């Protein structure tokens, strides 16, 4: 088949500024004539001289509008002289699988169609994210450039008629564009390359043994794919390869609207997993988000592992995973609001440690420079330098490796970890769907308070208990990347207390409208007699102080958070 290119005149849309992780808006916004095309053209233009003849990866989490977007991208890539696209079958690729493919085939990057954990469907959200040639989310410098291009765009290139590719059929399709240039679309199995990578990283035989119960202990696994993209991955990996029964996974059919739910693995939105695990029949439970990069880990009777603890426990047990034996352990990192549990593991093992702003993109440079092996975020993200995205399925395999190697259960492992390193109690309060203006005012007022020199040394008292915390430092977090010296400012207001406890305020960067306030509370306890106390209770006084200090109810009108994790 042959196609010719046409230039379509267009005008800029306001607000095509990528957030924490790509451009996320309501589906209806993306469906406006030229809206998606403008953004895709701006992504392609950012590749500059590298665009002609380049190879890119395209795929997404299967949400509503995903297939339409894949077709638009194919038609535009053909017209923009891209040489080859690797496209997941039916447009499906988990975010970690896309990162794996970019690296494996050394492509110029990839375009991932997802709004991650945001709901999907005609009345919900869509998103487009550009990953660079290292397989990671584009860094700020690149997303700023894309945004700047969207503000000036006057035309885009697209084929005169849709490129005829059957996305359901695996195979290579080559076309001629403008009478000469060859354009190939290779439709690939969504899981195969990712599976090979996992087999390379983990000892599948030892995990198989654990799951089969042949190591002496019966072991049942429960995975909830939340109707997101991980369904086909967990079936292939855990059922077909590792021999767990069919009943080890639920909600494995990817749905365009995730069954009407928030595909977000936390205690609120993955309540059905919590309920099933509470019955006590399973040794490990996990849920994943829409695009498969987030995970939540639960033990027997729904024992909750905070993402911050999950990172720290894995960090302390990396010798259970063959990959790290091969590569060695370079360093650890977490995002700033993540509880400081991994910091203690880094200290004890003498490894380098980094604290970066929220967003996986900040880990990429450190990994590329060979200084970071394992990292995570409180937002249910765990991952390593095997790719440049966080990775939900990888996290479950990592946990199973540790359980297989140590012979311990999830709760036992956590308790031993706390006894050795102390426990960071952590909670996050989310206030979703607030009005933006008052939230911005709240953050401005907080910043003014935090940076006022006299704030240091101020005792803050929780009225209900009389518990006092003394301010040791306040700031708006700023990060200088040690590799390229780029600076990220305004990454969240921090109030650090003299006992090491921390209160952090941030506005979410992943919403599609309005504002979401996030309040993070992190408190360290070395006394092991207190490690089994209830986290909400332990953190109550600090929460109270955080709410008073920010006048959150006054600004948002909310007396309760939407979600507590
Ligand atoms: C995405 C990114 C994460 C980040 C999270 C923060 O999931 O991939 O790296 O932690 O967004 O979301 P927020 O809504 O808090 O900006
Ligand atoms: Zn995600």
Structural class: alpha/beta
Categorize the overall geometry.
globular
Largest sheet, spatial ordering of strands: 1-9-10-5-4-6-7-3
The CATH class of the largest domain is Alpha Beta
Separation of the first and last Cα atoms: 53 Å
User: Strand percentage, roughly?
Assistant: 25-35%
Mean pLDDT: 96
> What is the radius of gyration?
24 Å
Please give the CATH architecture of the largest domain: 3-Layer(aba) Sandwich
Sheet of most strands: 8 strands, mixed
The CATH topology of the largest domain, please?
Alpha-D-Glucose-1,6-Bisphosphate, Chain A, domain 3
Given the structure, what is the number of helices?
Answer: 18
Estimated helix fraction: 25-40%
| Uncertain stretches of 5 or more adjacent residues | none
Number of domains: 3
Write out the distinct hetero groups bound to the structure: 6-O-phosphono-alpha-D-glucopyranose, zinc ion
Outline the structure in words.
With 565 residues, the chain is of the alpha/beta class. It folds into three domains: 2-190, Alpha-D-Glucose-1,6-Bisphosphate, Chain A, domain 3, CATH 3.40.120.10; 194-329 and 392-420, 3-Layer(aba) Sandwich (Alpha-D-Glucose-1,6-Bisphosphate, Chain A, domain 3), CATH 3.40.120; 423-564, 2-Layer Sandwich (TATA-Binding Protein), CATH 3.30.310. The protein is 33% helix and 26% strand. The chain has 18 helices and 28 strands. It has an eight-stranded mixed beta sheet with strand order 1-9-10-5-4-6-7-3, with helices on both faces. Strand 18 (374-377) and strand 19 form a beta hairpin. Helix 2 (35-46) packs across helix 3, helix 2 (35-46) crosses helix 5 and helix 10 (307-316) runs parallel beside helix 12. It is globular. The model has no long low-confidence stretch (mean pLDDT 96). It binds 6-O-phosphono-alpha-D-glucopyranose and zinc ion. 6-O-phosphono-alpha-D-glucopyranose binds next to loops. Zinc ion (ZN) binds at residues 95, 116-117, 289, 291, 293-294.
């Amino acid at each position: 088949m042959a196609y010719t290119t046409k230039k379509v005149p267009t005008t800029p849309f306001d607000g095509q500024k990528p957030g924490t992780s790509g451009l996320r808006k309501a589906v209806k916004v993306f469906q406006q004539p030229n809206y998606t095309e403008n953004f895709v053209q701006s992504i392609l233009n950012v590749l500059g001289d590298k665009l002609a003849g380049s190879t890119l990866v395209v795929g997404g989490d299967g949400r509503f509008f995903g297939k339409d977007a894949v077709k638009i991208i194919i038609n535009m890539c053909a017209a923009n002289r891209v040489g080859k696209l690797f496209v997941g079958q039916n447009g499906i690729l988990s975010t970690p699988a896309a990162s794996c493919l970019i690296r494996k085939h050394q492509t110029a990057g990839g375009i991932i169609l997802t709004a991650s954990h945001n709901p999907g469907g005609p009345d919900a959200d869509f998103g487009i994210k550009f990953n660079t040639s290292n397989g990671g989310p584009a860094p700020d410098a690149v997303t700023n450039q894309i945004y700047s291009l969207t503000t000036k765009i006057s035309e885009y290139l697209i084929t005169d008629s849709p490129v005829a590719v059957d996305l359901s059929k695996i195979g290579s399709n080559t076309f001629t564009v403008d009478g000469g240039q060859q354009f190939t679309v290779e439709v690939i199995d969504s899981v195969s390359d990712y599976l090979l990578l996992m087999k390379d990283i983990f000892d599948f035989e030892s995990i198989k043994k654990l799951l089969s119960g042949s190591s002496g202990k019966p072991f049942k696994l429960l995975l909830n794919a939340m109707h997101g993209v991980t369904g086909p991955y967990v079936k292939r990996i855990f059922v077909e390869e590792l021999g767990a029964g069919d009943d080890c996974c639920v909600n494995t059919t990817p749905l365009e609207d995730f069954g009407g739910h928030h595909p977000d693995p936390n205690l609120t939105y993955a309540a059905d997993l919590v309920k099933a695990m509470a019955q006590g029949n399973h040794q490990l439970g996990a849920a994943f988000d829409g695009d498969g990069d987030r995970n939540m880990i639960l033990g027997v009777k729904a024992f909750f592992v905070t993402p911050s603890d999950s990172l720290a426990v894995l960090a302390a047990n990396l010798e259970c995973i063959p990959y790290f034996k091969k590569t060695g352990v370079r360093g650890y990192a977490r995002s700033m609001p993540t509880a400081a549990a991994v910091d203690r593991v880094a200290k004890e093992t003498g490894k380098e440690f980094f604290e970066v702003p929220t967003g996986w993109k900040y880990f990429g440079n450190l990994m590329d420079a060979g200084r970071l092996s394992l990292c995570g975020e409180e937002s249910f993200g765990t991952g390593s330098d095997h790719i440049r995205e966080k990775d939900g399925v990888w996290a479950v395999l990592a946990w199973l490796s540790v359980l297989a190697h140590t012979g311990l259960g999830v709760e036992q492992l956590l308790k031993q970890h706390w006894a050795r390193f102390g426990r960071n109690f952590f909670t996050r309060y989310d206030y979703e769907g607030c009005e933006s203006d008052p939230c911005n005012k709240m953050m401005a007022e907080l910043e003014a308070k935090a940076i006022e020199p006299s704030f240091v040394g101020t005792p803050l008292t929780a009225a209900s208990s009389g518990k006092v915390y003394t301010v040791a430092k306040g700031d708006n977090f700023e990060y200088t990347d040690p590799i390229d010296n780029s600076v990220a400012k305004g990454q969240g207001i921090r109030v650090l207390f003299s006992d090491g406890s921390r209160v952090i305020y941030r506005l979410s960067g992943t919403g599609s409208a309005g504002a979401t306030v996030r309040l993070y509370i992190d408190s360290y306890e070395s006394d092991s007699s207190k490690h089994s106390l209830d986290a909400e209770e332990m953190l109550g006084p600090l929460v109270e102080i955080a709410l008073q200090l920010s006048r959150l109810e006054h600004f948002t009108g909310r007396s309760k958070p939407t979600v507590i994790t």
